[in-house]
C-alpha cells in the first residue's frame, strides 16, 4: 500500500509545513518587535487620557487590638484551637512539640522548667499579655526572629482575639 516514494513525499510535506510555520513565526516576531521600522523601542503611538475621578484611595482605619479583644468570643476561639492542638496541649505540664498552653494569658514566657524554650521568645517579651500573644500569633517569625515555632501565623485579627479569649478561659 505504501511504498518508499509515498513515505518520502509525506515526510517531505510534513517538514515543509513545519518550516513554513517556523519562518512565519520568525517573520511575525520581527515585525511585531521592530514595528516594521527597525527602530526597536519607541513611544506608544496612541495614549488614552483618563480623567481623574477625584476619589481618594479608601483608607482602612485599623481598630486597636484592645477593642477587638473586648468583643472577642471564647466559643469561636475554641473552634480555632483545633489548629493549635497538633503541637500544644491545654493540660498544665503536658507538652507536645510546643509547651502546654494552660493559663498562658498573663504568665511569663519561659514558664515551664521542663520545656526547652528558644531564646528568641525571651528576647521578644517577658509576659504573654493579650497584646503580645496577638503580635506573636500574627506572624511568629517576625515577632520573635529565630523562634522554633514553624507556624505561619493568623492573618485575621478577630480570629487571633477569639483564640486568645479562649486561651484566657483555660486555667493553668
Automatic annotation (TrEMBL):
Gene3D superfamilies: Cytochrome c-like domain (1.10.760.10). InterPro entries: Cyt_c-like_dom, Cyt_c-like_dom_sf, Cyt_c_1A/1B. Pfam families: Cytochrom_C (PF00034). The keyword Metal-binding applies. Keywords: Electron transport, Heme, Iron, Metal-binding, Transport. Residues 72-171 form the Cytochrome c domain. This is Cytochrome c family protein. It comes from Yoonia phaeophyticola. The lineage of its organism: Bacteria, Pseudomonadati, Pseudomonadota, Alphaproteobacteria, Rhodobacterales.
Amino acid at each position: 500500500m505504501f511504498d518508499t516514494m509515498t513515505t518520502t513525499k509525506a515526510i517531505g510535506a510534513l517538514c515543509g509545513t513545519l518550516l513554513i510555520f517556523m519562518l512565519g513565526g520568525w517573520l511575525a516576531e520581527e515585525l511585531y518587535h521592530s514595528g516594521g521600522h527597525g527602530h526597536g523601542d519607541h513611544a506608544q503611538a496612541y495614549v488614552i487620557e483618563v480623567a481623574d475621578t477625584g476619589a481618594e484611595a479608601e483608607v482602612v482605619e485599623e481598630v486597636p487590638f484592645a477593642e477587638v479583644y473586648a468583643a472577642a468570643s471564647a466559643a469561636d476561639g475554641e473552634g480555632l484551637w483545633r489548629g493549635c492542638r497538633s503541637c500544644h496541649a491545654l493540660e498544665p505540664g503536658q507538652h507536645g512539640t510546643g509547651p502546654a498552653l494552660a493559663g498562658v494569658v498573663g504568665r511569663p514566657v519561659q514558664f515551664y522548667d521542663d520545656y526547652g524554650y528558644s531564646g528568641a521568645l525571651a528576647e521578644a517579651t517577658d509576659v504573654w499579655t493579650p497584646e503580645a500573644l496577638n503580635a506573636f500569633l500574627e506572624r511568629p517569625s517576625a515577632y520573635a526572629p529565630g523562634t522554633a515555632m514553624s507556624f505561619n501565623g493568623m492573618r485575621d485579627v478577630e480570629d487571633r482575639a477569639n483564640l486568645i479569649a479562649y486561651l484566657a478561659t483555660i486555667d493553668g
